[in-house]
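Problem 3 from the worked examples.
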Amino acid sequence: MFGKIRVFLEMIKIEHTLFALPFAFMGMLLGSVVINGHLPSWAQVGWILLAMIGARSAAMGMNRLIDRYIDAKNPRTEKRAIPAGLLKTSEVTVFVIVFLGLFLWATWELSRFALTLFPIALVLIFLYSYTKRFTWLCHVVLGATIALAPLGGWAAVTDSFSWSSLVFYIAVAFWTAGFDVIYACDDIDFDRKEGIYSIPSRFGLEKALKIAQAFHVVTAIGLISLVFITPLGWWYAAGVVIACSILFYQHRIVKPSDLSRVQTAFFTMNSWLSGIVFIFTLIDLVVKFW
């Protein structure tokens, strides 16, 4: 049983939750303080955590189901759970249904307004895995999907949106799209051979990395803008400076002639970035609230 659980956790890359979860909590914090004037309750924190676990687990499981035949052909992914025979498609289907149920339950408990986002999230979760079959904008679709985490966190505690939440949404969407372009560079030869759409396969490595840089410039502008349109102050600004430095370093270590550090740029750098921005946001808001 524990071996099977380990396979499921590996399938959904549970460690990659570190990317979006801090931003989901940041959206919750910002919404609660900016709109409600106080920090969120522990109950809200718990339900948002469960919503994130449900949404991300279901999304990854669905992606593995939809991409199982492509994964089986790709040397980088052929050892994933389904193509390797470690999990049956029926098992993964049940897994997806269960975690979609968890996502729906948590969203229901958070707020009725947040519940209106559920169908949108469901469509994007389902759509993303197919976009690589017909458009190189698949990275942007992924960004739009992942960025629902902070937007949902905001909506869950405020029952509303604002310009601040939309700026934050755009920043996270282009951050995700940018690092996904970098990650896709590893598969450029396979994608071209199999007719898979991506920015690297369409434009080549050099242009793809420049596009990723442009996406991350949008992210930096969005994060900096929050200083001026929210109560966030110097603590948050310090975190953004560190985050922008991480973005800059990320693009320094990945070059068209050297992709050996793509995994470092993809996982390590981005885990640090989202965590740092969240921690400095929390310090900033707690200091102000107290």
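Problem 4, a separate protein:
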Amino acid sequence: MSANATASSPSTVLGRQLGDELRRLREAAALTTTQAAEALDCTKGKISRIENGRVTVRIPDLTAMLLTYGAMDAELRDRLSLLARKANRRRRQGWWNQYGSVVADTYRDYIALEAMAGTIRTFQAQLVPGLLQTPEYIRAVTVASHQWQTADEIEQFVQVRLARQERLASDSPLQLRAVLSEAVLLQQVGGPKVMSAQLEQLLIASARPNVTIQVLPFSRGAHASMFGPYVVLGFPEEAALDVVLADNPTGSMWLEREAEVGRYQELFDAARTSALSPVESRTVIRRRAKEHRA
């Protein structure tokens, strides 16, 4: 799969056209995004993503928006419904959909948003971020999860993760800022040889201008991010709102309300401040890589 294919966005021309029309109708109704969200019983983030063409617009949601905005013209409603259906069909052509048998809905949603993100800030407590994993490391994690049983399923999942990584080297590269607990460097994923190669890969990745890696050492003690990993996705569109994917004991959850997202932005800033500098982190990663080789 080419880098261009991986970087392609499900935010198609049709999706943006529909979003522009809905924004115009909202503004004509003299409603702010906050007011529209309250009237539609959804979040401001959802309104923002619809207007920026970043998500599928279901016909019931479209109908509710048009009613809220006072768009009663039948011809307009029919035209926008047809546009939504065409945009949704185009959106389903994202490269990740060919792996539907091994990629869960939540992960598919994440990949779609990641394809449109401009920045990713992530804290990881035990695992190397997926965008920085070697094939052998991915394979070891996949086998250990027991979610995929056959060799073919495991290999398909490895290919999905490798395809995602092409965003880091695309013409419009993703900006990745990662804070890793020191435990990430010590966890024997796949054994010493795999871990040594993985840490060497972190050193190579950290030399990229669009990748920043920091290590949060054990010596810093307790910290607010130690309760679980999370990812904060930021988008390039003006006024677009960040989205958070956080892990918890029962699975992953999306957070998009401003107060919740703001909390995770603060958590990441605190983790980044407590962590070693990128230069110091490279020294620690290099030392741990040598220890795995010993």
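Solution to problem 4. Residues 1-11 have pLDDT under 50 and may be disordered. The chain has 13 helices and six strands.
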